[in-house]
C-alpha cells in the first residue's frame, strides 16, 4: 500500500491498529496539537530536545489540518486513534477529532522510530516486535528534558532488543534517520534511564526477550505526551501510541539527505 492508500483506509475505517508495518517506505510521524498560546513553547521544546522530538515539518498555521508532507491529508481523521488531554489528564480516545478542532489549535508532526524499522529489517536486523507484528515497547524514563517556558517533562524511549555483537551495526543503520530519532541514546541496563521494569512498558506491547538480549533504547516521539501531563497543558490532542500519521516522504530520501550533509566539506 502507498502512504495515500493507508491514510484513505484509516479515514474510511477499513484499517485499524498500529501502523508499524504499513507503507514501510514512508516516514511516519507522531501528532501533537496544542493551543496557539503554547505553540511557541512547544516549538522551543522540540528545538532544545531534537533527539526525542525531531520535527518532521515546521508547525502548521493555527487551525490548519492539511500538512505539507502528505497530499490531500487531514490530521483530524487520518490517524487510527487519538488521545484528548485536558489539564494534563487523558479524557477521551476518539476515532477522529473534527468536532474538537478550532482555529486556536496548532499541529506538530514529530518523528517516529517506525521510520527506520524497515531499514533495520532490510539490513538483516529486523526488530523483534516488527517481526512478530507487535507494537514496540515504550517507557517513561527519569531523564529530564531541557524545558521551554511552561513546558517540562521526562524523555520517553522505545526499546528493541539485540545481541551485543549487533549493536554497532544497529547504530550505523539508524544514525542517518535523524528525522526519526537517529541512533540509540543508550543500551544495556535499563536502570541507567530510570526504567524499573523492562517487562512492563508504559506504552505499546511488552517485549519478547531471549537469552543474550541487550535492550537498546531510542528517543521516542511519545515524549510530548509526558510533557502534556507534567505541564498540565489545558488542552491537547495527540495520537494513540503506535497509531501514527503516514506521510508521503520517503525514508530513504531522509537518510540520503543526512548522508549528503555529513559528507559535505566544512
UniProtKB/TrEMBL annotation:
Signal peptide as annotated in the record: none
Protein name: UPF0317 protein
Gene3D superfamilies reported in the protein's UniProt record: PSTPO5379-like (3.40.1640.10), PSTPO5379-like domain (3.30.2040.10)
Coiled coil stretches, renumbered: none
Family: Belongs to the D-glutamate cyclase family.
Higher taxonomy: Bacteria, Bacillati, Vulcanimicrobiota, Vulcanimicrobiia, Vulcanimicrobiales
GO MF assignments: D-glutamate cyclase activity
Keyword Thylakoid assigned: no
Organism encoding this protein: Vulcanimicrobium alpinum
InterPro entries recorded: D-Glu_cyclase, Putative_hydro-lyase, UPF0317
